Amino acid sequence: MPPENHHPSAVPLPQAVTLGVEDLAPEESPPVAMVVNADTSSPPGEPVLKAIVAPEETVIPHPVAAVRDPWVEYAIQWLRPRPKQNDAAQKVSAFTVALAVHAVIIFLLGLVILSVPLIDPPALTAVVAPVDPTIEVESVQLQKVQRVSHASSASATPTFTITSNALSNVAIPDFDRKASLDVTIGMQGFGADMGLGFEPDGVESKVNFFGIKSSGKRIAFVIDAEKFMLEDKKGGMPAYEKVKEEIGRMLAGLNRATAFNLLVYEGGRLATFRDKLIPAQPSAIREALAWLAPLNKDFDRLGIAASAEYNSMQVKATNLEPVQAKDISGYPKAIQAALEMDVHTLFIINSGWRHMHRTPTEKEKKELEKRREKEWDEKKQAEWALAVKEAHDFVDKENAARKAKGVPPKVIADWWPLVRQRSPKTAYPPSYRGYTPEEVEDTIKHSVSDLYRDANKPRPEVNVVLFIGEDEMVSPVIEEHFKNLTRGNRGKLKVLKGLAGIEDVTKVK
Questions:
Q1: 375 and 333: one domain?
Q2: Which of 109, 223, 394, 500 is the most exposed place for a label (fewest CB within 10 A)?
Q3: For 332-381, where are the E strands, in sequence order?
Q4: Three-state DSSP class for 114?
């Protein structure tokens, strides 16, 4: 029964859709839930009653869950429970779709090709000074071979034939322009005097210097230009041409980035191909050979003083000791100049020890003047002058006979031995004493210390070839001097006797 103060009209009638039992399939489970709309103002489908268990046979609301007025007809609906939606499955499905979309996007991006225009690098142009048109050089074609570091040796079989019809027996061929340009661009820009760069320390090359095998990155060749090198007992002028030819072969075998220079000396005169070491590019080698070719080639222009190509230079050092800078000459002067060029390896061929003049002190000048007054009178001076003239006449007569036979002339380097040979009773004029071999060794030792040890540089290597006559003997004192000079500077000493000795170490085996 409803309460006394209750009126049916006070309760708004809910609106709902009623489902009967017939709406359910017989095989389905009985209804287990009912939804009642308690108010028309409520949103559709909003339940006021959650779950009510219904009887097994009849479809009626549960008494406890009945509406407030049982006599009021409420529209009820029995609903089957829907299976619970799986939120996790929906999330996984959404994640899978998103992942697939990203994979497709990445795949499409992978198909995109970025097109960047390529800029052609600037062409490297090497400008080489033209060769003197008066020099005829035979063009030799080379077979292209793999470049390897090999011994630059006169005794090794060369990779190409070197010929010349002009200034020298050595010619550098014209390289194939299609061949790759082997140039190492250095860290300090383009190499001086060449227009091409190279590594500051150079590239190592192996050299066989008349039987002395060594190597270096910065190499200098020192050549004795004195007339002692042209004496008959050494092979005369043909032997000297052989020396220049073999040095030309050594130059041609250097790696292009090896730094090199040539130095020639005659007494106190010293000439250099360049004022510093330069890379051994083909153009530089050709110029070096052309520079060396006229040296002692013409009997009327012997030595470096007679040729305009060889400008005499001085060493930079001014405080040498014990040999003074103003007195230094011969191979010691050439060694000093090479050390100032920061050489690694030095190769020297010379004719032996030579007297080095010492600037006299005032005391020494007075002593010599007294000796001449006492020992060198007018009679002895006249005898000496006559002996010298007779020696010159003898040589002139012999050279005239040689010229008629087409034989190279006889070269006299030191007239005093010849004068004494032809006039043994003639006395020598008094002269000042010169420097000793020990003083020369000490001077070079001090220079190496100043230029290398104090600058934390490795000591240079000094190698010497002593070129003497076939029947000549080296005095023990002089031989010991050259041994000290080479051993003290990590080098070697070799003695060659005459043209036969040169040919023996330079012949192709």
A1: no
A2: 109
A3: 345-350
A4: coil
- Among 43, 64, 86, which residue terminates a domain? 86
Supply the DSSP string of 222-256, one letter for each residue: EEE-SGGGG-GGGTHHHHHHHHHHHHHHHHHTS-T
Let me know: does 66 contact 75? Beta carbons within 8 Å: no
**Do 234 and 323 belong together in one domain?**
yes
| In a shared domain, residues 170 and 52 | no
Residue at which a domain ends, from 378, 394, 422: 422
Domain co-membership, 353 together with 400: no
Cβ count within 10 A of residue 4? 5
DSSP 409-462: PP--S-HHHHHHHH-TTPPPPP---B--HHHHHHHHHHHHIIIIITTT-PPPEE
Of 28-37, 290-299, 437-446, 448-457, minimum mean pLDDT range:
28-37
**What torsion, rounded to 10 degrees, do the Cα atoms 306, 314, 436, 423 define?**
20
Give yes or no: residues 385 and 336 share one domain: no
Structural domain containing residue 274: 151-358+434-506
> Which residues 6+ apart lie within 8 Å of 459 measured at CB?
448, 452, 453, 489, 490
Distance CA 147, CA 149 (A): 7
Q: What's the pTM value of the predicted model, to 2 decimals?
A: 0.58
Closest by CA to 227, choosing from 239, 209, 210, is 239
Q: Please give the C-alpha separations between residue 401 and each of 237, 333, 406, in angstroms, as whole numbers.
A: 16, 38, 9
122 in any annotated domain: no
Query: What is the total count of domains within the chain?
Result: 3
Amino acid identity at 90: Q
Please measure the distance between the N-terminal and C-terminal CA atoms of the chain and give it in whole angstroms. Answer: 140
pLDDT tens-digit readout, 241-284 = 999 999 999 999 999 999 999 999 999 999 999 999 999 999 99
Per residue in 77-101, pLDDT tens? 444 555 555 565 666 677 788 888 8
Q: Are strands 205-209 and 461-468 parallel, antiparallel or unpaired?
A: unpaired
- Tell me, yes or no, whether 252 and 207 share the same domain: yes
Q: Give the residue among 502, 491, 492, 434 at the shortest CA–CA distance from 468.
A: 502
